[in-house]
Amino acid sequence: MPAHVHMLLFIVLVLLSGLPEHAQAQKSDVKKRMQRKIVVSENKRFLQYEDGQPFFWLGDTGWLLFEKLTREEACRYLENRKKKGFNVIQCMVVPSLPLVNVYGDSAFIENDISRPEVTEGNNHTDTQQYDFWDHVEFILDEAAKNDIHLALVPLWGSVAKRPDMSVEKVAAYVTHLTQRFGSKPNIF
Fold first, then answer.
1. Residue pLDDT, tens place only, 90-133
2. Less crowded by CB within 10 Å, the N or C end of the chain?
């Protein structure tokens, strides 16, 4: 993999590494266990809650969750995963470009990750208001209601390798993610 791709992925991971800490500082209506901070154990061998209780990561891969599922399908999927004992869903925010969700909403203006396409409002019954990022937020909130953490892959490698990608564009995209979703308590 070219050095610039490694650098882009490194920047994404560094910028996102503050999300759980930032999220824990925010108040939320989700259940208390979603508020408890998950940390690496002192011996660096497992995950645990800050109080020392072990956190067992039982994850499913819903890679295209934000892109392919409607609100109703996402709710059913998350409820099903909860019933089966899953507590983490691994999914990609940007698996490819162009990126359009099941409702036909584009994630970015002209496929430029530094220019998220965001509309005024977030009413899901109004197609002029409900955008790609509103749908992501809805799914994040539904996951929290089901006691599920989302392990987000913010940018898939094939997107990072694009010739039009730059450190500046990735930084702008990650800034959008942290500003929009940084207070969510259920993001890894």
1. 999 999 999 999 999 999 999 999 999 999 999 898 889 999 99
2. N
Nearest alpha-carbon partner for 186 in 60, 119, 88: 88
Q: Is the dihedral of CA 62, 145, 82, 41 positive or negative?
A: positive
Specify the number of domains making up the chain: 1
**Does residue 60 sit within a domain?**
yes
Furthest C-alpha separation in the chain: 51
> Quick one: DSSP state of residue 80?
H
Kindly give, in sequence order, each residue whose CB lies less than 8 Å from that of residue 147, ignoring residues fewer than 6 positions away: 31, 33, 34, 82, 87
The verdict on residue 187 lying in a domain is no
For residue 116, list its beta bridge partners: 108
Range of the domain at 99: 3-181
CATH code of residue 69: 3.20.20.80
Q: Is the pLDDT of residue 88 over 80?
A: yes
In a domain, 84, yes or no: yes
In the sheet that holds 88-92, the strands lie side by side as 59-61, 88-92, 149-153
Apex CA 156: angle with CA 88 and CA 174, to 5°?
80
Decide if 122 is inside a domain: yes
Predicted TM-score (pTM) of this structure: 0.81
What confidence tens digit (pLDDT) does each residue in 150-161 have? Answer: 999 999 999 999
